[in-house]
Write a structure and sequence with these properties.
Elements: E1 4-11, H1 17-26, E2 33-38, H2 45-50, E3 58-60, E4 66-70, H3 74-86, E5 94-98, H4 105-114, H5 116-121, E6 122-132, H6 136-142, H7 144-152, E7 155-159, H8 166-179, E8 185-187, H9 214-225, H10 235-239, E9 246-253, H11 259-273, E10 277-284, E11 291-298, E12 301-309, E13 318-325, H12 329-338
Parallel strand pairs: 1-5, 1-6, 2-4, 2-5, 6-7, 7-8
Antiparallel strand pairs: 3-4, 9-13, 10-11, 10-13, 11-12
Helix pairs in contact: 6-7, 11-12
Amino acid sequence: MALVPATILTGFLGAGKTTLLNRILREPHGYKIAVIENEFGQENIDNEILVQDSNEQIVEMNNGCICCTVRGDLIIALSTLAQKRNAGELQFDHVVIETTGLANPGPVAQTFFMDDEVAAHYLLDAVVTVVDAKHGMLQLDDHEEAQRQAGFADKLLLSKTDLVGMDQVDALVARLKRINPRAPVNKVDFGQVPISDVLDLRGFNLNDKLEIDPDFLAVEEHVHDHHNCDAHCSHDHHHAHHSDDIAAFVFKSERPFNTARLDEFLGNLVQVFGPRMLRYKGVLWMEGADRKVVFQGVHQMMGSDIGAKWRDDEARGSKMVFIGKNLPKDTFIRGLEQCLV
C-alpha cells in the first residue's frame, strides 16, 4: 500500500492554526484528511471549536475528513488510524497533525523516522508553520519555541497581514528568511489558503533541488560586513537586525568531498551539536561519483540518498544549509573545508 503523506501544522499560540484547520475540516476540497489534534493538556479547548461532541476520540466530518484528538502518544494515534484504514473502517489519504502552540516540532517530525510501524504507513510530507504577522516579531524575540517553529518549516504561512502595514510584513519576512532561507513564505487571510499550499508539498523528501533563497546569501554577506562598521554607521540599520538564537547558514564549494572524511566529520557534528541542529539539508559532490548525493536531517537523525546524475553541462559543486540554535558557524565551515579533496 502507498504511504500516507503526513503534514505537521505548527505555529505559535494564536497564530491561526485552528482557523486554518476548521477550513480544511469543513470545506469541500475533495481530499479525505485525518486531522490529529496533538494536545498534551487535560482540557482540550480546540476540540470544542472543532467538534461539537467532544466525548468521541475520532469524529467524521461531513466532507469526508476525520478529526482525532490525542491526549497521549502520537505513535499510538497514528498506528490506530492506520489499522482502522487497513480494516476499511476509515478512509483517508492525508494526515495533518496540529501541534500545540508551544510545541517544538522536532520530536513530532522524528516520530516518522524513529518508529517502524509509523514509517511503514506514513511519509512525512512537510512541516507547515503559521506565523502571526501582528505579533510574530515579539514572539520571535521572546520565545525560543517560535524560532524553532520557524526554523523547522518547509513552508511558512503568514496570517493577519491585514492588521499591519507592509513595512512590518516586509521586516518579518526578511527575519524569517534569515532564520530559515529554505522555506517559501505565503500570506493567508482568515485561513483562506489553497489546499495545495498545505498538502503534497514534498518538502521533507530528499530531492536534488535544494531551494535556498538567492537573496539570503546576499543578506548573509551584508550582515557579515557590518562587523567592520565604524562609528559613522547609521544606528537604525543595526536596529533592524534582531539577534535570534536560531539562524541559518550556508556552505558552498566547487571542490568534491572526500567521502570518508565527510562521513566522519558529519557523524561528529551530529553527536556534539545534534540537539541544537534543527534542520539541515544538502546536495553534495562526492569524489569519483557521477551522481549527486542528497543528505538531510533533523537533530541526531541524519540520512542520505543518491540523487540524479550530474549533467555534462552542469557546474559541479556542493551546497548545504544548516538551521540551528547557536551553532558555531566557523567550526562547521572550517571542518567541512577540511573534508574537501
